[in-house]
Design brief:
Elements: H1 3-7, H2 11-19, E1 23-29, E2 35-41, E3 43-45, E4 48-54, H3 58-65, E5 68-75, E6 84-95, H4 98-106, H5 117-122, H6 126-129, E7 133-147
Antiparallel strand pairs: 1-2, 1-5, 3-4, 4-7, 5-6, 6-7
Length: 155
């Protein structure tokens, strides 16, 4: 078995890993040719990575021009063997439909931390934000994973 095969997660492990996290580094292609990387909260909607954003955000402008997207969810620790990650390459589907966006917003957040009561009190009603935000769903084309704990002490 190759080293690459040894560290690859199964589909079930990938799903569990993605559901147990809520932040990812997302990359889009900037108009200047440089990658545009941001850290953003996400949730799985069904089995797809999804997130909400302001329609005027740079990442959305980039995705309107070029829908290719990369999403990296990772954990690191003190040792090489602590590294685990899932990298999804795909195409972003931008959803502006208010009904679908509401369904997503009201769906189970699962892994995302719950807002504090104080934060929830300051949250704007859906009707006030729906025209300014949209939903992004990542349609995966390639998924790569690695779990270095599988290497044992031979790292």
């Amino acid at each position: 078995m190759s080293r690459r095969d040894a560290i690859r997660m199964t589909d079930a492990e990938i799903g569990t890993f993605l559901r147990s996290h809520w932040l990812m580094v997302m990359g889009t292609n900037g108009k200047d040719g440089f990658p545009h990387l941001v850290t953003i909260a996400y949730k799985l909607w069904g089995d797809r990575i999804s997130f909400s954003s302001y329609r005027k955000a740079q990442k959305i402008k980039n995705l309107e021009r070029d829908p290719r997207i990369s999403c990296l969810v990772e954990t690191v620790g003190e040792q090489y063997g602590d590294i685990k990650a899932v990298l999804v390459h795909g195409a972003a589907r931008l959803i502006t439909d208010a009904t679908e966006y509401r369904e997503w917003r009201e769906s189970e957040w699962g892994q995302l931390p719950r807002p504090s009561d104080e934060h929830a009190k300051g949250a704007k009603p859906f009707e006030e934000i729906v025209d300014k935000r949209l939903l992004v769903v990542v349609e995966p084309e390639r998924v790569t994973s690695w779990d270095h704990s599988r290497l044992g002490d031979s790292s």
